[in-house]
Every structure is written in C-alpha cells, then in structure tokens.
Structures
1.
Amino acid sequence: MKKPHQKPEAAAPVLTIDQMHAFLDEVFPQLGGKDNRAFIVEDISPMAARVRMAYHNRQLRPGGTISGPAMFTLADLSIYIAILGQIGPVGHCVTTSLNINFLAKPEPRDLIAYCHVLKIGKRLAIAEVSLFSEGSEDLVAHATGTYSIPSP
Amino acid sequence: MKKPHQKPEAAAPVLTIDQMHAFLDEVFPQLGGKDNRAFIVEDISPMAARVRMAYHNRQLRPGGTISGPAMFTLADLSIYIAILGQIGPVGHCVTTSLNINFLAKPEPRDLIAYCHVLKIGKRLAIAEVSLFSEGSEDLVAHATGTYSIPSP
Amino acid sequence: MKKPHQKPEAAAPVLTIDQMHAFLDEVFPQLGGKDNRAFIVEDISPMAARVRMAYHNRQLRPGGTISGPAMFTLADLSIYIAILGQIGPVGHCVTTSLNINFLAKPEPRDLIAYCHVLKIGKRLAIAEVSLFSEGSEDLVAHATGTYSIPSP
Amino acid sequence: MKKPHQKPEAAAPVLTIDQMHAFLDEVFPQLGGKDNRAFIVEDISPMAARVRMAYHNRQLRPGGTISGPAMFTLADLSIYIAILGQIGPVGHCVTTSLNINFLAKPEPRDLIAYCHVLKIGKRLAIAEVSLFSEGSEDLVAHATGTYSIPSP
C-alpha cells in the first residue's frame, strides 16, 4: 500500500552528517562531544534522518530495559536533526509538543531512530519518528513532534 | 532510508473488503449503509488499510475547507478498520486516545486515509494514519491512535 | 493541592455569551443556528469557557454511548470558544493539533466541556478540556489542543 | 468555573511521602538515592502528587533554559508517583504514552510538577501534569500520560 509521493519540497538536505555533528557538538556539548558522542547521526536524506543512541547503563530501568526519558531524548533530537538537515542550523528552533507511544521494552542495546518530516511550514515543522533496537525489527516506540521555526 | 522489515506478525488480514463493509453497515448504520456509504474501504493489507471519505458539503468549514471533526472521524475509523482487518470483527474495540496534527487545509474533495498498525498487543493496538486529498501529494493531517482490545 | 495562581494575562473576556453565539451562528451555520443550536455556550470566564453539546441520537454508537467524533467536536469547539473569548472573533484561528483521551463511555445525555486556556502566545494558543455527562461527576474524556493564532 | 466534584474513588493515598521516597530510592537508584535526590516528592494527596526536580546544570540548554528531556522526565515521574500513591507500589506499571506541550522556556531553577490522576481503570491510568518554575506563576509545560496497570 503506497502513499502518494512526497512533494518536490523534499529538496536535498543542506547539511552533511559531518556538518551536523559539528553543529551539535557546539550547541549541545553535554551530549558528549566528538570523542564520546551519545547520539550519532547515521543518515540525512530529504525530509528524513536516522540517528543512533549509543547504549549506556545509565539509561537502564528495572527489568533491564531502556528508560522512557532516554527514548524521548532520542525521538526529540532526531526530529531536530531531520528538520535542521532541511532548513540549516538555525538557532531557536524549539520543540513545542511531542507525543510518544511506548510499544515494547527495548533491550539494553543501541536504539535507532528513523525520522520523517511531515511538513515544514513557515512557523511549525512536524515529524514522526520510529525507534528500533539495533538488529531488531520490533518497533519499540513511535513519536510525533512539532518544532517552532523562528521567523527569518 | 528504509526502516527494518515488519515482523512476521503482519499476517494476512482476516476480513475482505466486502466483509468489512458488511460489518460496518451493521454496526454503524448511521454511516450511510451500503447504498450511500460515507466511508469506503479501498484496501485491507497486512497491518494496513486505505479508506476513502466521500466528500459532502456538510463537512465544509469557512474558506472552503473540510472540518477538523470530519478528518478526525476518518482517521479514527480507518484505524478501527485496519485493526479489525487483522483481528476480526470483535465487539467492544474502542478508541482510548487519538492524537491528530492538521497540516494543511484540504480542498472540498474526497479524503483518503492510509493507516498502518504499529502494534497489536494483548490489550492495546496502536496505529498511525496519513490523510491526503484525492489526487494530491500533500499530507493534510496525520494521526496516531490507540484502541483497547477486549480480553478474549 | 493548589497550583500557582494564573498570571494577570487572564484578563476579562472580550466577548459575551450572546456575542459568541452570534459569531458562531454566522461562521458555522451548519451547527444549527440560533433556533436549533447543537452547542450552547454556558460560560465565558477569563481564559476559560463552558460549552454544552445537546444530545442527539445521531451521536449514538453501539452500546448506547456517544461517538468519539462527537466528543472530539465538542472538545475542539470549546477550545475555539475559550480562545476567542479572550482574543476576540479573529478569523483564521485554526486547530493545529488535538490530543484526546477517552476515559469512560458517556450515556446518551448532554455533554458539558470545561475548557481552560493554558497559554495564549503570539503564534499559538493551547488549552485543555474536560468532558462530563450532564449531572455526572465522571470524567468521560480529556483533551489538549493547540490553535494557530493569525498574525495581526 | 468549577468542574464537577471528583468521585469518591479519590480515596486516601496508600503511601506516605517517606514510603514513596524509600520505594523510588530502591527502584530507581540512578535518580540519586536518599542523600542526593534529583526528584523530591512534596505532596501526595487523593489522586494527586506534587514533585520537585532539583535544578542541576546538566539540564541546561542553549539560552540558559532547561532541556525538554528533563521536563519530560519530571512529568513522567510525577505521573508514576501520583498513580502509585493511589494503588501502592506495584511493579511493572509502565508508561504507554505521553503527550507534552512546552509553553515557556523555564529559567535555571527547580521545577515543580502538579499531577492529577484523571482515571485509574483496570488496565490503564491517565493523569495530567502542569510544570512551573519555582516561585513563578507561569506554566512552562503541560503533559498528559497513560500508564499500563498490571493485572492483579
């Protein structure tokens, strides 16, 4: 069952993976910096991004699963990356809302976020994200988030 | 950017389009019945369904666009159809929550919902839906919804 | 357990109930007009509104309960009324997202929405709504919605 | 504008603040333990809880504001505390979904969550949370979350 093709607004991204990493290292130094990145951008495509969250035992919760806030962080950041990949490293692009559904308890492994931007408007950008454990075909969480785009 | 394959739980649907229409006509007679269906099931695939909402001018809002409640109705019903296509016509399968984002004002035309079930658990089923105007590649709304599955 | 007081931005509403009804009758004639209103504004207070949805059997679903789309319509409209009560009858104030949780199956009676605006910003207004059946203390649904505010 | 009274199901909480702290210290040792709690339960009332998140500079984001994931963590945890205050320290009570709206950028200070449980059902519990900066009357975020309740 195929959805209609994306519109031509899905232009080529304006940032490479290296440029995105450099920008994130500068803006969010608490995420580890280039020698110890907690979040690795694996792909930036038109209106999309794939981001890996490296497993760390501080993400653990009882039962050996990864915490909800860690999954939220990955979902939120991957939306930010997918949007900025498309519009460039604008400052003041902030989350206005995020809705997340937790579907399965992820094992203690890296998590991979697949983010697709649904719309980039003049004021708001909206994206959806699917989270998978590395090497697994089970969806562990799904989120939809909205970012406020600053006026030019 | 491809997501991991769906798991084998995506078994063949258990209802055909005709069976689904017959079930809906019986359970929701107010949706028009077989001679005047407001919602037409166009496809039932593994963990997915496509549903068309026939345009009617009572759906109109100022500016010639389709009302939010009409889009909500289509999103909610398409999730119901996609889930029941997979688990059969169980009674008492009810919406517990629905989150909808309105992305563009649809023109006064049929709307098409593409619904994908994200998970069918023992208690809950979760799905996401994209709404398009007929013949358009613009996403007009996106929703995520959860249904409660009755105990067997 | 008391929350902090609302800020002084909770100024007096700028529309009376009669003015709001007149505006709604003009903009949404399909809601019944003054002789047959489906939705009755019962109160407009600072950053709040109470709206009644008159029961009609077209809202019924199997089991004698009121449909989700009817509850969505009430939630969405009550947010619109609460916001416009505060900022006046501006055109082009549209829902950008709505998240609704269905908590109990309402009986076939009038539903009452209690809406509180959480924030009116320059671009977005956000509100939360609680729906009760008339004469009941059971919450039947709760929603949070965001409207886009047009630029002045 | 007063909502209907809460139903009598709002029975007295079954855990005191000290019991809740002891339970959290045991289950979530990574939250700091009794000598260094990151989250302090300030009140447990019928169907409600107030929880403080102590400010720490690792929560900071560019512009001197507190990160979205930190606010998510507080919202999620306060719902957990409010529910467990009512049903006791059951294991395996997990978030199934959370919807959060960010309304203002909080200053680098403690954040206080006011959580009200909307419903405790047999399978699901739903609550809403308002986050304020200490000493401020500005709402900085609002969330609605659902937890899965384990079968007895």
2.
Amino acid sequence: MSVKIAKNSGFCFGVKRAIKIASEAAQGNHKIVTLGPIIHNPQMVEKLASEGIERVNEVSEIQGRPTIIRSHGVKKEVLEELIANNIEIINATCPYVSKTQEYAKELSEQGYMVVIMGDKNHPEVIALSSYIEGECLIVASAEDVPEKKYQKVGIISQTTRKIDDLQKLVSIFIPKCHEMRVMNTICNATSIRQESTLELAKESDLMIVVGGRNSSNTKMLARISEDFVETFHIETACEIDKKWFKGRNNIGLTAGASTPDWVIVEVYNKIIECMGNINQKVDKIKDIPGFKEEE
Amino acid sequence: MSVKIAKNSGFCFGVKRAIKIASEAAQGNHKIVTLGPIIHNPQMVEKLASEGIERVNEVSEIQGRPTIIRSHGVKKEVLEELIANNIEIINATCPYVSKTQEYAKELSEQGYMVVIMGDKNHPEVIALSSYIEGECLIVASAEDVPEKKYQKVGIISQTTRKIDDLQKLVSIFIPKCHEMRVMNTICNATSIRQESTLELAKESDLMIVVGGRNSSNTKMLARISEDFVETFHIETACEIDKKWFKGRNNIGLTAGASTPDWVIVEVYNKIIECMGNINQKVDKIKDIPGFKEEE
C-alpha cells in the first residue's frame, strides 16, 4: 500500500513570485489590497488576508490604497483606470501571462484574427482579450470553432490549458485559413505538471488532486487524471472520505501550481491516517514519497 | 451501370497557363526548349515536342535557345545561371508555386526553421528549398519529424499534397516548438480535385485515376480513392483491362491537374467500350456524365 506524489507538484514560479511580491509589499505597508484573488487558492488568499492584504473585487473598493495586480493579470482598461486615479500599482502578473498579453497585442496589430484557447470567464482570458484590437474568438476547444473561412489566424492559449487541446484546435483551423501563426503560450510549469500527473495516474488506482476549485490548472490535472483512474479534486484535507481508499493500493497525489505546500502536506497526512500508517506522516512536502522539485 | 467523372477533373489554372505560354512562344520561335518536362504528363510533353518544343534535362543542353521554365519552377541557382548566360527565360512557373517560393524565402529571412511537407525528389520541392537560407527540413509526413525541440518553425507545403497530412504535421510540431507559422500552400485546384475524387470514390465500386505516373497531384488522388474502393492509376486508355469492370456497376473516373482533356476522353470511351455501351461514346470532356468545369 503506497501513497506517492506527482513530481513538480505545487507552487510554480509565477505563483511563488506573486506571493513574494505581495508579502514584501505588505511588510512595508499595512493598507494594501489585491484586486481579485492574487492566485486561485482560497486557503492562500485567506492566509494573506491574515497578513493584512485585503482582497477587493472592484476598482471602486480600492479607495486610494496601493493595489496588487493578481498573477492572472487584469484588463488593460483597469490598469489605465488605476493609473488615471494615481493608484500605486504592485504588479504580480505572472511574466508568462504578460508575455501572452504581448503576443495577443502583436498578432492583433499584424492583422491576425486572434483565437484564444481558454475559458472566456477566467480572469486571465478576460485580461488577455483586452489586448486585442481587431477580431477575436475565444474557444474552449476545437468543437467551438465556427464553420467559416479566415485569411490570417493567430492562435494563443490560456497558460494553463492542455497541449493536446491546442493540437486539435490548430489542426481544425488548417483547412479554414490561408495563414496561421501559433504561439504556444501553455507555460512550462503547466506542461510538466500535466506530464507528471499523467505518469502517476497511469500507475495508481486512485488519484487525489489538490487545489482551488477555481484554479484552471488544477482542474486540467483532474481532467487528465480522470481519463485513467478514479479521481477526486479537493481543496483541503477535511474533504477526504476514508471510504475512498477501501481496496486501493496505489494512491496518487498531485496538486495545482497555486496549491500551497502546507495544504498538500495536510492532505498527504490525512490519506496516511485513513490508511492506518500514521507513523509515515511528514512535516514537509519534500518528505512525501515521489516529490521532486521543479528544476 | 454508369460511368461518372469527378467534378473539376483535368487541367488546372497553372497547367493551362503553362501550356498557353509554351504554345504562344513556340509560334514565334521554332528553337525553344523546356528545362525538364513543362508539366508531369508524358502525353502532353510529347504533343509539345511535335509542335517544336524540345525538352532538355540540363542547362548544358540549352545551347543558347530561349528556355521555358517548367510549371514546377526551378532552383534559384539555375535561374541565376540562365541569366548569367544571357538565356531568354520564358517563365511558366505556376503563380501559386512562385508564391510558395516567396513564403519560403520570407519565413527563412524571419528566422524560422522552414519545414516543407513534400517529396524531396520532386522538382517543385527541389526548387522551393533553394529559396531557404537557413535551416530546412523536408518531410513527406508527420512520421518523418525528428524528436527534437525548435524555437520558431515555419511550415509550407508542396502545392499538391493532402490537407489532412498538413493537419497531422502541424499538430505534431505544436509540442516541439514555441512559435509556429503555417502557410497553407496546398493550392485550391488540388483541394477541390481531392474533395471531388473523395466524393465520387465513396459512391463508386471501381475508380480509374488518369494522369502522369510522375504527377504528384494525380498520385494523391489515387491515394485518396484507394482508401475507399479498388483503384487503378493509368496514364492512357491502352492500359485498361476489360476484366477490371466485371461485376462493377458504378465506375468513377478522375484525372489529375496535368491530364489533358483528350486523354481523359479516350479513357472514358475505352471504359464505355469495355462495358458494351459504345453508343454512349463522347467527343468532348464536357459531355462525360458528372463533368463540371472548375469555377
């Protein structure tokens, strides 16, 4: 009977960076806010609130306070509004997300009809689409592509999507356009977490995926895992039901790029408890079997 | 019992144009040559020879005579050599092929590793690759793509390939590169002939594909047809064997973009003869059931 964690589980570069920027800003200033959740993990957002970083949802709630821009970025118009109102901006947008925004702008300026593969209601996609001047199409997958011909199509992706969905989308567009430019903006952190999760799911008889229910990259890990084995997507250890593990021998654990280490450790220890191996509990994520930090 | 021809069968715009350029040049000058076959149809090349257009294979055989550049184009270096030798050039390169050469040059100048989907021994591809300054990869299909990562990949295709092969190739490259630019250079004449052939093959119990054995687009039509029904690729009527038609009711006929009308009519009449319906013979391609000229 074993519990193993997928390689590279947990915080990615962009999330670590955003948390660091926020924490440092909070030390010098006790009246800062984030506009929307800084990352898609309610537990981490709560912890930051306890450090004095208030989350507001609308520009009108900022009331002159220094404002952290969430890792997912915000709409161009919102940034312009903050600047016009002389708000101090602490930009924690993931650099890979910023790069995607630059590509969106560039493709749009070059006359491409820009296609974003992503969730049209996700803040990253909402922000991204604001950088496109001309025609823009947001699709969740190849199935959403209209029966229509285009001249020049520029394709980008929300940073946390699946590579095979991008492959299908690009393939669908080939007979529909004369020219296509594709920027593979699925970030490396997403790709390696997906690969490690896939690998572990194949050798497990149950998978536990830990991370925010609003986290796009965590939801993708769950989708990938589900194709191979029974999978539960949870946010915290208290959601775990002992019955899940009955008759299971190889439990796989994976976590999204915005899931804090302490949440993962709590989940691991709860699984261990359910399986009756309490002497195998750990204090740190690096002690969970299978863990390997992202290089 | 019926014999039907696929819509749009026979000469495409580029082939008609090349033949017209050659014939007009021959009227004013009885000492012109083509460097290589002007189109990939031995019967047409023979007919042009009877009009005084000699085919040579090497620059050294030109001996100062005005030279027709074949519809498939020639290498940049060959053109330069002709110019250096003050040879009068009559350029019958298909405009769509010339456009593909421009794309090859442009992608190469923009720092893309240029991938040509095509047959590395085909004159069009040999000519095309001469316009690429930097790294270049010629692949027949997605199976030929090496296990390697690239930064910027620019993909073009020989004008006569299959669109689904291009889709597979593009899809294979997505996880292998950061940026991709694809010019769909499969020409419209190719696509519509492939679609019409596919349509007819599905409703036939035998298909006859007429065209040069060296003709890439004709070979593609045969490949498409073969996936659905027994198919014979022939160059002329005299290759037909009466036995093929025994027990067949719906015969489909299709022809490549370089197959002359008179060759198609001869084939149709031979089939009609084999089936014992000699009073259904025709004089012109437009009288063959199912014929519809390309718009």
